[in-house]
Specification:
There is one protein chain. With about 500 residues, the protein is α/β, with parallel strands linked by helices. The chain has two domains: about 150 residues, Cobalamin-binding domain (Rossmann fold); about 280 residues, tm_1862 like domain (pyruvate-formate lyase- activating enzyme, Alpha-Beta Horseshoe), CATH 3.80.30.20. The chain is about 40% helix and about 15% strand. The chain has 19 helices and 16 strands. The chain has a seven-stranded mixed β-sheet with strand order 2-1-3-4-5-6-7, sandwiched between helices. Helix 1 links the parallel strand 1 and strand 2. The N and C termini lie far apart (about 60 Å). The structure holds iron/sulfur cluster. Iron/sulfur cluster binds next to helix 7.
Length: about 500
């Protein structure tokens, strides 16, 4: 069968985009099993969808709805694909977790729930053989106004997946700068996380299941990228890099023994690794590590079930600093019912830790999480009803809706202040300079202009300018709020 996978363009989105790993993995798997596939990434290049459909003549179109900002284009692609006569299957985290909302807003044949590779192969093979697609496990569809689920599909053994075929995309368009590296690529080594955080979709999407790919397959992909595209750094885009020390030791050993020249960065949890481990990681090429700390309040940590060992947080950042690893600390502010006292504890924690970059994200209720269910059940949150409503939510800029007991302005000013100060910082590496972080952000925005039309470029410039001015304004014009929380980053 002929399958066209589409990554829809995102509206008002200024961040650098990475490889669409989900559809790349599914497309590679189908291709290995004898099907003809193509990937159209509209976040990279806007093309005429009607013409693309007529040229490729797909039997099925798979639309990856990775971002809430992608609904408008996903809708456009879907309508064109339906008109062309292809079956349309949507996939992605959000649409897997809120199937009702999705089917209420768009006429599609199926949603592929959660992990897609095995479901897609089963679906395509069944359709080709003239079988019953409604019996394929791992799907949702709408019948007589009701959403019907086929049986849940077990997660597959990741060792059955072949190395990703990078010839399916224009690799060079995705490579970005990151902490001294110029050509960073996104890959994954594992899927899922065993955490139970109440604000995160993971518990339902990955069912608390953590699986690792064979490191040899990962390294085959790295080798291809290093040799053919001069990639110098890999962003290991896992929810959790290595669940324990032994796993990390094995991975680092394999990285070193591969003889490949590449740096890498990961996201992990506080409490798994210590100073000696960070040294081993650094020795194997690691240059940065991101940690989700979320809160500095022990009470809130308990409420959100993140369960980090509080006594190890500060030490972890000291350890990273001691071995000259760039460390990133991510916090969430404005959790439901969060008090000013708890907010202060988070700020104090952010000020105490010896991290390179602290980032505050506003809490936003996301389908599939425990907190979202509670807010909806109690009537405190009325989820958007249409794609447009979701696209209009400006969750990067404002804590709207604000479920906490902290004034929205305080949340916004504190976040902006830390962001502004972060722009001008130097990271620990000897080669870094001040404003490297700001420069990276500007380059990321400029890169997005390639492949798009003038209207898109102008829109992006205006949005970026708005974002920049918004942060600058809130960081500079509310000194009383900065004083209220005892923040002073002038010496950094
Ligand atoms: S927030 Fe991080 S640690 Fe918690 S469940 Fe999600 S991925 Fe796991």
């Amino acid at each position: 069968m002929r399958v066209l996978f589409v990554n829809p363009a995102m509206e008002r989105y200024t961040r650098q985009v990475g490889f669409p790993l989900g559809i790349m993995s599914i497309a590679t798997y189908l291709q290995t099993n004898g099907h003809t596939v193509k990937i159209l990434d509209r976040t990279i290049k806007t093309t005429n969808i009607k013409k693309e459909l007529e040229e490729f003549k797909p039997d099925i179109v798979g639309v990856s709805v990775f971002s809430l900002k992608a609904f408008t284009d996903a809708e456009k692609v879907t309508k064109a694909a339906k008109k062309f006569g292809a079956k349309v299957v949507w996939g992605g985290i959000f649409v897997s977790l809120d199937t009702e909302f999705t089917f209420n807003n768009i006429d599609i044949d199926f949603i592929s729930i959660s992990e897609g590779e095995a479901t897609w192969l089963d679906l395509v093979t069944t359709l080709e053989a003239g079988g019953d697609p409604y019996a394929v496990a791992g799907l949702a569809y709408k019948k007589d106004g009701k959403v019907i689920y086929t049986p849940q599909r077990e997660f597959m053994d990741l060792s059955l997946l072949p190395p990703i075929d990078f010839t399916l995309i224009d690799v060079d368009k995705y490579l970005g700068s990151m902490y001294g590296c110029k050509r960073t690529a996104l890959l994954y080594l594992s899927k899922g996380c065993f955490g139970q955080c109440t604000f995160c979709f993971n518990k339902r999407f990955h069912r608390q299941c953590y699986r690792v790919r064979p490191v040899e397959v990962f390294l085959q992909e790295v080798e291809y990228l290093v040799k053919n595209h001069n990639v110098d750094c890999i962003y290991v885009a896992d929810e959790l890099f290595c669940k324990n020390r032994q796993e990390m030791l094995d991975v680092c050993k394999a990285f070193k023994e591969s003889g490949l020249d590449f740096k890498w960065g990961v996201e992990t949890r506080v409490g798994i690794f210590e100073k000696d481990d960070f040294r081993i990681m650094k020795d194997a090429g690691c240059i940065w590590i991101a940690f989700g700390i979320e809160t500095g309040s022990p009470a809130m940590m308990k409420k959100i079930k993140k369960n980090l060992p509080f006594d190890k947080i500060e030490q972890t950042f000291e350890d990273c600093k001691a071995v000259d690893l760039v460390s990133l600390a991510n916090f969430i502010i404005g959790f439901p019912d969060e008090t000013e006292e708890e907010f202060r504890e988070t700020i104090d924690m952010a000020l105490r830790i010896a991290t390179t970059q602290r980032t505050f994200f506003f809490y936003m209720p996301g389908p599939g999480s425990e907190l979202y269910d509670e807010l909806v059940a109690s009537g405190r949150y009325k989820p958007p009803k249409t794609f447009r409503d979701y696209t209009n939510i400006q969750f990067f800029y404002s804590p709207k809706p604000n479920f906490s007991k902290i004034p929205s302005r305080d949340l916004k000013v504190v976040r902006s202040y830390f962001l502004w100060k972060g722009f001008s910082r130097k990271y620990f590496s000897e080669t870094s300079r001040t404003y490297d972080i700001a420069k990276k952000d500007i380059v990321d925005v400029l890169k997005q202009f390639r492949g798009h039309n003038l209207r898109f470029a102008i829109q992006l410039i205006l949005i970026s300018a708005y974002e920049f001015l918004d942060i600058w304004f809130y960081a500079h014009f509310f000194p009383s709020i900065i004083k209220k929380y005892n923040i002073n980053l002038d010496d950094e």
